[in-house]
Amino acid sequence: MVEKIPLFVGVDGGGTTCRARVFDEHLNELGHATAGAANIARNTESVLNEIAHVIHASLQDAKIPTHQRQQYKIHVCAGLAGFKVRAAQHALQMWQHPYQQLSVTTDLTAAIWGGHNGHDGSALIVGTGSCAAAKYGETITQIGGHGFVLGDKGSGAWLGKKALQVTLLSLEQYPGAVPRDFSQAIIEVTGCQTAEDIVSQFNNAQPADFARLAPALFELAPSQKNAAALISEGAEYLSVIATQALELSGGNLCLAGGLAESYRSYLDPSLITRIQPPQQGAEYGAVLWAKSQA
Protein backbone atom coordinates (compact mmCIF):
# COMPACT_ATOMS: atom_id res chain seq x y z
CA MET A 1 0.00 0.00 0.00
CA VAL A 2 1.32 3.44 -0.94
CA GLU A 3 1.51 5.71 2.09
CA LYS A 4 -0.44 8.91 1.67
CA ILE A 5 1.35 12.25 1.75
CA PRO A 6 0.43 14.27 4.87
CA LEU A 7 -0.99 17.75 4.34
CA PHE A 8 -2.17 20.27 6.91
CA VAL A 9 -4.77 22.94 6.13
CA GLY A 10 -4.86 25.68 8.74
CA VAL A 11 -8.09 27.69 8.87
CA ASP A 12 -8.62 31.01 10.63
CA GLY A 13 -12.37 31.63 10.73
CA GLY A 14 -13.35 35.12 11.90
CA GLY A 15 -16.60 37.01 12.01
CA THR A 16 -15.93 38.74 8.68
CA THR A 17 -13.19 36.78 6.89
CA CYS A 18 -12.08 33.16 6.69
CA ARG A 19 -8.51 32.34 5.63
CA ALA A 20 -6.88 29.00 4.88
CA ARG A 21 -3.25 28.00 4.29
CA VAL A 22 -1.92 24.65 3.14
CA PHE A 23 1.28 23.28 4.73
CA ASP A 24 3.38 20.20 4.11
CA GLU A 25 4.53 17.96 6.98
CA HIS A 26 7.44 20.34 7.67
CA LEU A 27 5.04 23.30 7.84
CA ASN A 28 6.23 24.88 4.60
CA GLU A 29 3.37 26.84 3.04
CA LEU A 30 2.08 25.52 -0.29
CA GLY A 31 -1.01 27.63 -0.95
CA HIS A 32 -3.63 29.92 0.54
CA ALA A 33 -7.13 31.32 0.01
CA THR A 34 -9.63 33.73 1.54
CA ALA A 35 -13.42 33.57 1.86
CA GLY A 36 -16.26 35.20 3.80
CA ALA A 37 -17.51 35.16 7.39
CA ALA A 38 -16.92 32.02 9.45
CA ASN A 39 -18.43 32.49 12.91
CA ILE A 40 -19.59 28.92 13.41
CA ALA A 41 -22.21 29.95 15.98
CA ARG A 42 -24.09 31.99 13.35
CA ASN A 43 -25.71 30.61 10.19
CA THR A 44 -23.92 27.31 10.79
CA GLU A 45 -24.82 25.66 7.49
CA SER A 46 -23.60 28.57 5.36
CA VAL A 47 -20.43 28.87 7.48
CA LEU A 48 -19.62 25.19 6.95
CA ASN A 49 -20.02 25.77 3.22
CA GLU A 50 -17.72 28.79 3.46
CA ILE A 51 -15.09 26.75 5.31
CA ALA A 52 -15.31 23.93 2.77
CA HIS A 53 -14.98 26.50 -0.02
CA VAL A 54 -11.86 28.14 1.42
CA ILE A 55 -10.22 24.75 2.05
CA HIS A 56 -10.94 23.70 -1.53
CA ALA A 57 -9.61 27.00 -2.89
CA SER A 58 -6.42 26.79 -0.81
CA LEU A 59 -5.75 23.25 -2.06
CA GLN A 60 -6.32 24.43 -5.62
CA ASP A 61 -3.82 27.25 -4.98
CA ALA A 62 -1.38 24.61 -3.69
CA LYS A 63 -1.71 22.88 -7.10
CA ILE A 64 -3.58 19.94 -5.59
CA PRO A 65 -6.71 19.49 -7.77
CA THR A 66 -9.68 17.48 -6.60
CA HIS A 67 -8.83 14.36 -8.62
CA GLN A 68 -5.40 14.08 -6.93
CA ARG A 69 -6.50 14.51 -3.32
CA GLN A 70 -6.84 10.79 -2.66
CA GLN A 71 -3.02 10.71 -2.68
CA TYR A 72 -2.93 12.90 0.44
CA LYS A 73 -3.83 12.56 4.09
CA ILE A 74 -5.49 15.92 4.67
CA HIS A 75 -5.68 17.15 8.25
CA VAL A 76 -7.80 20.31 8.59
CA CYS A 77 -6.89 22.35 11.66
CA ALA A 78 -9.34 25.18 12.26
CA GLY A 79 -9.62 28.05 14.72
CA LEU A 80 -13.18 29.35 14.49
CA ALA A 81 -15.05 32.26 16.02
CA GLY A 82 -18.07 30.98 17.94
CA PHE A 83 -16.58 27.54 18.60
CA LYS A 84 -17.27 27.75 22.35
CA VAL A 85 -21.03 27.64 21.70
CA ARG A 86 -22.20 24.06 22.31
CA ALA A 87 -24.58 24.01 19.35
CA ALA A 88 -21.70 24.96 17.06
CA GLN A 89 -19.55 22.14 18.43
CA HIS A 90 -22.38 19.69 17.84
CA ALA A 91 -22.78 20.90 14.26
CA LEU A 92 -19.09 20.32 13.62
CA GLN A 93 -19.30 16.81 15.10
CA MET A 94 -22.14 16.02 12.70
CA TRP A 95 -20.42 17.56 9.67
CA GLN A 96 -19.94 15.02 6.88
CA HIS A 97 -16.65 16.39 5.59
CA PRO A 98 -14.27 14.63 3.16
CA TYR A 99 -11.05 15.20 5.13
CA GLN A 100 -9.07 12.46 6.87
CA GLN A 101 -8.93 14.44 10.09
CA LEU A 102 -10.56 17.59 11.48
CA SER A 103 -9.32 19.38 14.61
CA VAL A 104 -11.16 22.51 15.75
CA THR A 105 -10.52 25.10 18.45
CA THR A 106 -11.35 28.78 18.93
CA ASP A 107 -9.96 31.48 16.66
CA LEU A 108 -8.35 32.95 19.77
CA THR A 109 -6.40 29.77 20.52
CA ALA A 110 -5.17 29.65 16.93
CA ALA A 111 -4.12 33.31 17.08
CA ILE A 112 -2.18 32.95 20.32
CA TRP A 113 -0.41 29.77 19.22
CA GLY A 114 0.58 31.40 15.95
CA GLY A 115 1.40 34.80 17.39
CA HIS A 116 3.90 33.37 19.87
CA ASN A 117 4.92 30.35 17.74
CA GLY A 118 3.71 27.97 20.43
CA HIS A 119 5.38 29.76 23.36
CA ASP A 120 3.73 31.50 26.30
CA GLY A 121 2.24 34.93 25.73
CA SER A 122 -0.97 36.89 25.32
CA ALA A 123 -3.14 38.02 22.44
CA LEU A 124 -5.71 40.76 21.91
CA ILE A 125 -8.04 40.12 19.00
CA VAL A 126 -10.13 43.01 17.72
CA GLY A 127 -12.11 42.56 14.55
CA THR A 128 -15.82 41.93 14.16
CA GLY A 129 -15.63 40.63 17.75
CA SER A 130 -13.17 41.20 20.57
CA CYS A 131 -11.41 39.17 23.26
CA ALA A 132 -8.06 38.60 24.93
CA ALA A 133 -6.26 35.44 25.95
CA ALA A 134 -3.24 34.18 27.84
CA LYS A 135 -1.22 31.06 27.09
CA TYR A 136 0.74 29.69 30.02
CA GLY A 137 2.05 26.21 29.39
CA GLU A 138 -0.83 24.13 28.08
CA THR A 139 -3.46 26.39 29.64
CA ILE A 140 -5.34 28.96 27.54
CA THR A 141 -7.40 31.49 29.46
CA GLN A 142 -9.90 33.54 27.49
CA ILE A 143 -11.14 36.94 28.66
CA GLY A 144 -14.22 38.43 26.98
CA GLY A 145 -15.35 37.23 23.58
CA HIS A 146 -18.95 36.49 24.61
CA GLY A 147 -20.44 37.39 21.25
CA PHE A 148 -22.20 40.37 19.74
CA VAL A 149 -25.41 40.10 21.79
CA LEU A 150 -23.79 39.79 25.23
CA GLY A 151 -20.26 41.14 24.87
CA ASP A 152 -17.46 41.94 22.40
CA LYS A 153 -17.07 45.49 23.71
CA GLY A 154 -14.67 47.56 21.64
CA SER A 155 -15.15 45.33 18.60
CA GLY A 156 -16.03 46.53 15.13
CA ALA A 157 -19.59 45.29 15.53
CA TRP A 158 -19.89 47.07 18.90
CA LEU A 159 -18.54 50.33 17.45
CA GLY A 160 -20.92 50.17 14.49
CA LYS A 161 -23.95 49.46 16.67
CA LYS A 162 -23.07 52.27 19.11
CA ALA A 163 -22.60 54.72 16.24
CA LEU A 164 -26.02 53.85 14.82
CA GLN A 165 -27.69 54.13 18.21
CA VAL A 166 -26.41 57.66 18.84
CA THR A 167 -27.17 58.61 15.24
CA LEU A 168 -30.80 57.62 15.69
CA LEU A 169 -31.01 59.77 18.84
CA SER A 170 -29.51 62.68 16.92
CA LEU A 171 -31.97 62.30 14.04
CA GLU A 172 -34.82 62.43 16.53
CA GLN A 173 -33.31 65.53 18.18
CA TYR A 174 -32.96 63.83 21.56
CA PRO A 175 -31.60 66.29 24.17
CA GLY A 176 -27.82 65.99 24.49
CA ALA A 177 -27.51 63.76 21.41
CA VAL A 178 -24.40 63.85 19.23
CA PRO A 179 -24.08 66.80 16.84
CA ARG A 180 -25.57 66.68 13.39
CA ASP A 181 -22.19 66.50 11.63
CA PHE A 182 -21.43 63.17 13.33
CA SER A 183 -24.82 61.64 12.55
CA GLN A 184 -24.62 62.93 8.98
CA ALA A 185 -21.25 61.24 8.50
CA ILE A 186 -22.66 57.92 9.71
CA ILE A 187 -25.71 58.31 7.48
CA GLU A 188 -23.47 58.82 4.46
CA VAL A 189 -21.52 55.65 5.25
CA THR A 190 -24.70 53.57 5.49
CA GLY A 191 -26.31 55.10 2.42
CA CYS A 192 -29.46 55.71 4.47
CA GLN A 193 -31.43 58.95 4.51
CA THR A 194 -33.75 58.62 7.50
CA ALA A 195 -34.10 56.85 10.84
CA GLU A 196 -36.56 54.49 9.20
CA ASP A 197 -33.98 53.63 6.54
CA ILE A 198 -31.40 52.78 9.22
CA VAL A 199 -33.83 50.54 11.12
CA SER A 200 -34.87 48.77 7.92
CA GLN A 201 -31.28 48.15 6.85
CA PHE A 202 -29.92 46.99 10.21
CA ASN A 203 -32.90 45.42 11.95
CA ASN A 204 -31.82 41.91 10.94
CA ALA A 205 -28.17 42.67 10.24
CA GLN A 206 -25.28 40.39 11.18
CA PRO A 207 -22.35 41.53 13.38
CA ALA A 208 -20.17 41.86 10.27
CA ASP A 209 -22.65 44.37 8.83
CA PHE A 210 -22.26 46.61 11.88
CA ALA A 211 -18.49 46.12 11.84
CA ARG A 212 -18.21 47.60 8.35
CA LEU A 213 -18.97 51.01 9.89
CA ALA A 214 -15.95 50.87 12.23
CA PRO A 215 -13.25 52.06 9.77
CA ALA A 216 -15.28 55.24 9.16
CA LEU A 217 -15.20 55.97 12.90
CA PHE A 218 -11.42 55.75 12.99
CA GLU A 219 -11.27 58.11 10.00
CA LEU A 220 -13.57 60.57 11.77
CA ALA A 221 -11.87 60.37 15.17
CA PRO A 222 -9.06 62.93 14.60
CA SER A 223 -11.59 65.67 13.80
CA GLN A 224 -14.77 64.43 15.46
CA LYS A 225 -14.77 64.14 19.25
CA ASN A 226 -17.83 61.90 19.35
CA ALA A 227 -16.16 59.27 17.16
CA ALA A 228 -13.00 59.57 19.28
CA ALA A 229 -15.07 59.13 22.46
CA LEU A 230 -16.61 55.86 21.21
CA ILE A 231 -13.20 54.51 20.24
CA SER A 232 -11.69 55.58 23.57
CA GLU A 233 -14.47 53.79 25.45
CA GLY A 234 -13.74 50.62 23.52
CA ALA A 235 -9.98 51.05 23.98
CA GLU A 236 -10.35 51.38 27.74
CA TYR A 237 -12.07 47.99 27.92
CA LEU A 238 -9.58 46.39 25.54
CA SER A 239 -6.67 47.74 27.58
CA VAL A 240 -8.08 46.19 30.75
CA ILE A 241 -8.55 42.70 29.29
CA ALA A 242 -5.15 42.84 27.56
CA THR A 243 -3.51 43.74 30.88
CA GLN A 244 -5.29 40.85 32.61
CA ALA A 245 -4.04 38.48 29.90
CA LEU A 246 -0.45 39.71 30.29
CA GLU A 247 -0.58 39.13 34.04
CA LEU A 248 -1.66 35.54 33.44
CA SER A 249 0.88 34.68 30.72
CA GLY A 250 3.95 36.58 31.89
CA GLY A 251 4.89 37.03 28.23
CA ASN A 252 4.36 39.67 25.58
CA LEU A 253 1.22 40.73 23.73
CA CYS A 254 0.45 40.27 20.06
CA LEU A 255 -2.40 42.01 18.30
CA ALA A 256 -4.67 40.30 15.78
CA GLY A 257 -7.85 41.12 13.90
CA GLY A 258 -8.81 43.74 11.36
CA LEU A 259 -9.04 46.64 13.85
CA ALA A 260 -6.12 45.79 16.13
CA GLU A 261 -3.62 48.17 14.53
CA SER A 262 -6.21 50.95 14.32
CA TYR A 263 -6.67 50.68 18.07
CA ARG A 264 -2.95 50.57 18.92
CA SER A 265 -2.51 54.31 19.61
CA TYR A 266 -5.65 54.37 21.79
CA LEU A 267 -4.52 51.57 24.12
CA ASP A 268 -3.11 52.24 27.57
CA PRO A 269 0.53 53.43 27.22
CA SER A 270 1.66 50.71 29.65
CA LEU A 271 0.82 48.10 26.99
CA ILE A 272 2.84 49.58 24.14
CA THR A 273 6.22 48.21 25.25
CA ARG A 274 4.71 44.74 25.65
CA ILE A 275 3.33 44.55 22.10
CA GLN A 276 5.29 42.50 19.58
CA PRO A 277 4.45 41.53 15.99
CA PRO A 278 2.85 38.09 15.61
CA GLN A 279 5.50 35.52 14.75
CA GLN A 280 3.04 33.51 12.66
CA GLY A 281 -0.56 33.81 11.54
CA ALA A 282 -3.56 32.09 13.09
CA GLU A 283 -3.71 29.51 10.26
CA TYR A 284 -0.21 28.35 11.21
CA GLY A 285 -1.21 28.55 14.86
CA ALA A 286 -4.18 26.24 14.32
CA VAL A 287 -1.85 23.62 12.86
CA LEU A 288 0.67 24.03 15.70
CA TRP A 289 -2.11 23.61 18.24
CA ALA A 290 -3.51 20.52 16.51
CA LYS A 291 -0.06 18.89 16.34
CA SER A 292 0.40 19.56 20.08
CA GLN A 293 -2.80 17.60 20.78
CA ALA A 294 -1.69 14.52 18.83
TrEMBL record:
Q: Check the record and name the SUPFAM superfamilies matching this protein.
A: Actin-like ATPase domain
* Sequence ranges assigned to domain ATPase BadF/BadG/BcrA/BcrD type in this UniProt record: 9-290
InterPro entries the UniProt entry points to: ATPase_BadF, ATPase_NBD, Euk-type_GlcNAc_Kinase
Gene3D superfamilies xrefs: 3.30.420.40
Listed Pfam families: BcrAD_BadFG
Protein name, entry field: BadF/BadG/BcrA/BcrD ATPase family protein
Organism for this UniProt entry: Alteromonas arenosi
